[in-house]
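Take a careful look at the sequence and tokenised backbone pasted below. I need to know what the token row says about the fold.
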Amino acid sequence: MNSKKKFLLRLDPDLYQDLEKWAADEFRSVNAQIEFILRSSVSKHRKPGQSKDKQNTEGDL
């Protein structure tokens, strides 16, 4: 059983259209593409074991 969190996301129609095209180029659904983008961003900006305070300080530089 897949236990993913469900939530409502409102997007600008133009942004959604861009995501649809990008997802199609990479043979993904829009949902999978958004998840891929979010995972990539989180892994890039949040290193394991780093506290919120450290992240905020580094992000302000």
In short: The chain has a mean pLDDT of 86. The longest helix spans residues 30-45.
